[in-house]
């Protein structure tokens, strides 16, 4: 049962974002500080992000609420999603396992791709993993890179994806590296 939570959530989140990518329209943008007291994080993001809250039925009538901020600039999607899993689901595994499975499922479902690299890091007391991946979105060679963190029972997914030729875009690194966890509960 525990893997169903993570697999279903990643599928839904990636579908939300994949359909958000549209044809490139190169626009000017301005970096903005974004902070969420409810989400307990801050990040620097290009342009004003769109905020979404979704409820996802994952199994046996259990519903999880996902909170997402996202924006898309010049064909590259930037997003942060967080979700609070039931504590028993998180306690039945390890942070390493939860992060690894979430990243792999996100890459497989998000860009029909493969993981190129991942690196464990820590932010405050949260276990995190940075990663890079490549794959396809709508038959276009694509990249995805990001940072997933587990703080207590909250999973944060910070990611950027777009066309593979844009993978060296320093903006994606600026976005990912600016992610900060604010004071815990």
TL;DR of this structure?
This protein has 185 residues and is an alpha+beta fold. It has a single domain (2-181), classed as Protein Transport Mog1p, Chain A, CATH 3.40.1000.10.
Question: If you had to describe this structure to a student in words, what would you say it looks like?
Answer:
By secondary structure, the protein is of the alpha+beta class. It has one domain (2-181): Protein Transport Mog1p, Chain A. The protein is built from 4 helices and 10 strands. The strands form 2 sheets. Strands 3-4-5-9-8-7-6 form a 7-stranded antiparallel β-sheet, sandwiched between helices. A 3-stranded antiparallel β-sheet has the order 1-2-10. The radius of gyration is 15 Å and the shape is globular. The chain starts with a helix and ends with a strand. Mean pLDDT is 83; it is low at 1-5 and 15-26.
Task: Furnish the topology, listing elements before pairings.
Elements: H1 2-18, E1 31-36, E2 41-46, E3 50-59, E4 62-73, E5 76-84, H2 87-91, H3 95-111, E6 114-123, E7 126-137, E8 140-151, E9 154-163, H4 170-177, E10 180-181
Antiparallel strand pairs: 1-2, 2-10, 3-4, 4-5, 5-9, 6-7, 7-8, 8-9
Helix pairs in contact: 1-3
């Amino acid at each position: 049962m525990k893997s169903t939570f993570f697999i279903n959530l990643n599928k839904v989140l990636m579908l939300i974002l994949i359909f958000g990518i549209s044809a490139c329209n190169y626009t000017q943008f301005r970096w903005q500080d974004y902070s969420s007291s409810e989400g307990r994080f801050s990040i620097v993001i290009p342009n004003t992000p769109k905020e979404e809250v979704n409820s996802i039925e994952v199994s046996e009538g259990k519903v999880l609420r996902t909170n997402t901020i996202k924006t898309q600039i010049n064909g590259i999607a930037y997003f942060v999603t967080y979700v609070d899993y039931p504590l028993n689901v998180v306690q039945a595994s390890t942070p390493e396992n939860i992060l690894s499975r979430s990243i792999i499922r996100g890459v497989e479902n998000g860009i029909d791709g493969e993981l190129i690299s991942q690196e464990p890091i820590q932010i405050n007391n949260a276990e995190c993993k940075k990663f890079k991946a490549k794959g396809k979105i709508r038959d276009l060679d694509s990249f995805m890179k990001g940072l997933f963190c587990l703080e207590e029972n909250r999973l944060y997914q910070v990611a950027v994806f777009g066309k593979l030729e844009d993978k060296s875009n320093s903006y994606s690194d600026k976005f990912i590296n600016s992610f900060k966890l604010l004071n815990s509960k």
